[in-house]
Design a protein that fits this description.
about 170 residues, alpha+beta, 2 domains, elongated, Ubiquitin-like (UB roll), single chain
């Protein structure tokens, strides 16, 4: 265990803490979700401590359970899309006809609506669908270079898929 120090309000001092895994509950849209979270307790007095990384972890875990139980695309898949298709977050948003920052917000952890999630999941799973979107909406992109780079990546994925399907 890598000892880090945080401030304990009881001890009034920076202290080492003990990390524990705990079952937690959170509410989103008036529904309660259960998830595995983390807590920190003072190594000296046992008081629960606030550790920003744990707070972030717990929120991500809650959102992950919400996504899974509501059939929404995972954060990992959202983050893979720009890399998979060699396109930036802003150009991807524009390509989809969304606000320029919409995809970026989802990549940072915001939860997409079911409709947007379904679109992202289809893009993730179906390079042919993405290639069609790219052709149909290439006028939404601000540069021809963004279009060309993404087109090459989509074609490479389609080629790889057709080769693996032929085997």
């Amino acid at each position: 265990m890598n000892p880090k120090k945080v401030f304990c309000e009881e001890c009034r001092n920076d202290v080492n803490y003990i990390e524990t895994s705990v079952q937690m509950t959170g509410t989103i849209k008036e529904k309660v979700y259960h998830y595995a979270g983390k807590e920190a307790h003072c190594a000296d007095c046992g008081s629960e401590l606030f550790v920003p990384e744990f707070s972030d972890f717990n929120l991500r875990a809650l959102y992950d359970v919400f996504r899974k139980e509501n059939g929404l695309i995972s954060l990992e898949k959202i983050r893979e899309i720009p890399e998979k298709y060699a396109i930036g977050k802003r150009p991807l948003s524009l390509l989809l006809g969304w606000g320029e920052q919409t995809f970026s917000r989802y990549a940072e952890g915001d939860i997409p609506t079911k409709q947007y999630s379904d679109t992202l999941l289809r893009i993730y799973n179906d390079p042919a669908f993405y290639a069609e979107l790219l052709e149909a909406n290439k006028g939404n992109l601000k540069s021809a270079l963004a279009y060309e780079k993404s087109r090459k990546a989509a074609l490479a994925l389609l080629s790889a898929n057709s080769l693996s399907a032929a085997k």
